[in-house]
Write the structure tokens for this entry.
Amino acid sequence: MPKIVDKQAKRKEIAKTAMNLFAQKGFDSTSIREITSCVGMGKGSFYDYFKDKEDLLNETVHVLFSEWSTVLALKIKDVEDPLMQLQLLLQEGAKLGDELEQLMIVYIDIWRRSVSQKDNSEYSKTLQNFLMDYKKAIATIVDAAKAQGKIRKNADSSAIATTLLALVDGLCLHRMILKDKMDINSVSSDIFTILLNGMK
């Protein structure tokens, strides 16, 4: 009797394996043969799951952002105060450079490819959709803070969300490079205070 394989689970397994290789070598320098060798399958079997390496990259983007979103959602799920949620998103988002450093490296590579190729590839669309969805989620928290009178009513929720997301990206990169030379709790707290003063 042939072995039944959960195709979606296998796609995710291959994508996670590829993510590790992409983090070490970059997307362009990683071959399909290297990926399939690490997964323990023949190169020809790769095409049972992906049409090409770009298709695999798109799946990797989905896995990356799904994991990132899950981690951040867990950090704020029991916090009711929207300002505290925003501060935690900044602080904990910046710490992901440690927890999910490989994801961040792949994220940078995907960002580079999306910007340099200026294309309409699936992974570029996935990156754009993630950023837009993430900004909308942050803007919703900002709107809750406005409704509670914690920040001024005419504050631009979208601009604040964009700023916060850019700060998370920047702090992640700095933390990955500076490691223990950067007190992320202190830095993110000071940055959030400056941001909050602009929102009041």
Notes: The chain has one domain: 7-199. The chain is about 75% helix and 0% strand. The chain has a mean pLDDT of 84. Residues 7-199 form a domain with the Tetracycline Repressor; domain 2 fold (CATH 1.10.357.10).
